[in-house]
Structure formats: C-alpha cells, structure tokens
Input
Amino acid sequence: MTTINTPLSLDKIKSLKAGEELLLTGTIYTARDQAHQRLVAAIKAGKRLPLELKNAVIYYCGPTKTPRGKVIGACGPTTSSRMDSFTPALLKAGLRGMIGKGNRAEEVKKAIKQHQGIYFLTYAGCGALLAKYVKKATPIAYRDLGPEAIFKLEVKDFPLIVGIDSKGGCIYGKI
Amino acid sequence: MRKIKAIAISKAVEELVKRASFYLRADVLSALKKAYASEKNKRAKTILKAILDNAAYARKEKLAICQDTGMPIVFAEVGQDVSISGNFTSAINKGIEAGYRSSCLRNSIVKDPLTRGKSGFSPGIIHTEIVRGNKIKLILLPKGFGCENKSQLKMFKPTAGIQEIKEFIVNAVKNAGPDACPPYVVGVGIGGSADYSGLLAKKALLRKLSSKSSSLEKDLFKQINKLKIGAMGLGGNNTVLAVHVENSPTHIAGLPVSVNISCHALRSATITV
Output
C-alpha cells in the first residue's frame, strides 16, 4: 500500500484518486467544531494562527483522556459535515488535507477542487484501534476546550481512504 | 422496605460506565460477526474486520471502543419497596463522574446548550420508572452524538398508512447516510406522545439484537439494507444490524413516530442493586 508523508505538498497528492487506500506518516492536527470556529475567526481578524496551515492535515477528532502509560486514548474520526461551513476558509488559508468520516457539502467539494486539497476517510467508530497508529500527542492550542483542543499528533501508517480527491472526485459519487 | 445506600448506586453506575465503554455488547458483537461473514463487498468486509478488531483491541487494552463515549443515559427501574438513603440523582451522577474519570473517557457534556463552555462528564439523563419489588435495576446507554444527531420525529395523521410510516423510517436512515457510523441499529417508537415516542425509540436500542423480529421489523430490515449504504457508507449489503420497533397506546388525533439511530458501537450495560 502507498505511504505518504506530511507535509502534504501538492505533488504528493495530486495523482491520488477517490477510493484509493493509503497510509499516512507524519504530523496531523486535531480540530473539531469549536476549534474550527476559532481558527476561522482568527483568519478573518488577520490574527496569527496557532499552527502552520500551509500543506497541513487536520483530523476531525476529539480524543478521550489519555490512560496512564498510553500515548493517547480512543481517537477516531467525528462527522466531517459539521465542519463544512468553516472548511473553505481554511483551504483558502493553505490547509491541504482533512481526515474525517462521512460526506461533505457541495461548497466543500468545490473548495477542495479550487485549492487542490484532499479529504480522507478513516475507519469510523474504531477509536481504540486508531490509537495504535499515534506515536505522540501534544495539545498545542485552545486547551480550555478540553477534548476539542488542537492536538499535534505524530502518526505512523495511519490508515486512510481518499474521500474527495484534488480534482473534486468523490468516493460517495461512485457508489 | 429494603434500604439501599446512595453510595451503592454510585458504585454500580461506575461499574456500568466501564463495562459499557470497554466491552462491546455480546449481541452487538455477534451481529457484527454475522455481518462480516455475509458481506459481499470487499471494502465493506475490510471495514467490518476493522470494527471487530477495534472491539477486541478496546477489550484487551481497556480503551474506549469509540472516542465519543457518549451522553450517559440511565434507565432506572426502582422497586417500590426500596428506600434510598441519600440523593438518588446525585448518586447516579457521582457514579458517572467517577466511572468516566477513572476509565479515562471523554468529557463531552456542556452544562449550557447555548453558551456551551467547558465540557465535563455529567450530568447524565435519567429515566426513572417505579416497578414492583425491592431492587433497583440500572441500565446505562452511553449514546454517541454522531448518530443521535440523526434522530427524527414525525407526527403522522391517525389515518396515515403503514407505507408512509415505513417510508419515513427508511428515509431517516437514508438521511443519516454514511455520517453516523453504519452498519446501524435502528430504534423506532410508534405511538404515545411526541416525547414518549422518542423515549421508546431509544429504549428499543436496549433490546437484544438476536431477539425475535416482528413482520414490520423484518420488512424494514430488508428495505433499509436495500439502500446499500454499507459500512462507512461505502456500499455493501449490511446497512443495518437490526431494526427494533416499540409500540405504545396513543391519542385518537395522532400517530407519533420517532427514529433513534445507533452507530455500530451500540453500547449499554445492566446491573441490579
């Protein structure tokens, strides 16, 4: 199976097609509803962001608390569509990849195509299993949000399926 | 009167939190195994295998099956010959707090739905029923909100036909599509009032998946699987693991129908004090 490494420059992802399975190694950042709202508000206000968005990958995930002796708790994907209204602004600001579950709005598909981003799916409802692929987890911003804080995750061979490719091709359109 | 101390209730709830969150229900696990065996779509089969591996890994490592450790919903059947010393409601919430904390689950509950604020582990939602006897039966259903968000209610006319009702239920699942972690378990509440049909739909999720199905349930099961949403919504012949319908008396002017969908990680545990 193909392995890709972060940061996701355009040349690494432009040939990937919806439906392709691959493994991701490198750095990804968790962010869900509240963090998205703050990031987009910061972009609009012209403020400095707590992470470098260019070629970055955001994972829609709010992990459980970390059990003693473990790197992270259960950490599966949450429903991506809740982030739809915030996604075009992040793609415009340089975000390359997103990982989540479920389909996206038309406006997101358009924005992915326009900015040559990519949307991945990972095993939904498999939060315990996915913890195996996380080697390091550090909260880096919005700690007051608890599980919704932004965590920087170092992952190895994290399993992905291309949901929407950089040309706008969508896995759900093919079924 | 049999005396039960509040602390015994807290301890029991704490135990339920662990059991429900780490160990997938045996009936759900066997329905998933059956789905895996019957799945013809190659990708769906791979995903179902990951779901089974996830349950095994959670059990072995004492990790939450899913990071959405849910909104804790407690069904309490309190025997009328029981006398509780202490505060029943806070005893349950203390048990939830202790269980979620010691099991390293997720603090997903915000105190105010509008201003949100910092999230915590409690309160849970408690449904209490007074029954005969001198025991307390407690059931915990930690309900994830990916699937709870797909709930639907429709107040049908009393003259509505069964086809209309079936269509509404099937469409509720179609609307959930790939978002709420299929294969699903679909709970349906027909009758009662608006709120009571919702409660019935949720309670329907507690029934054993291997229990005998009515002809309506069998028909819905077939129709929903024909949607071919499949595991993760990527196709396949297993869109639902089971459909459970609960009926209740209702008013001559109405016919409420509620649908409550559960993801494949349908978690619950029961204990008697």
Residues 2-173 of chain A form a domain with the fumarase fold (CATH 3.20.130.10). The mean pLDDT of chain A is 97. Residues 33-44 of chain A form the longest helix (12 residues). The interface with chain B takes residues 34, 61-68, 70, 73-76, 78-79, 81, 101-103, 121, 123-129, 131-132, 144-148, 159, 161, 171-172, 175 of chain A (CB under 8 Å).
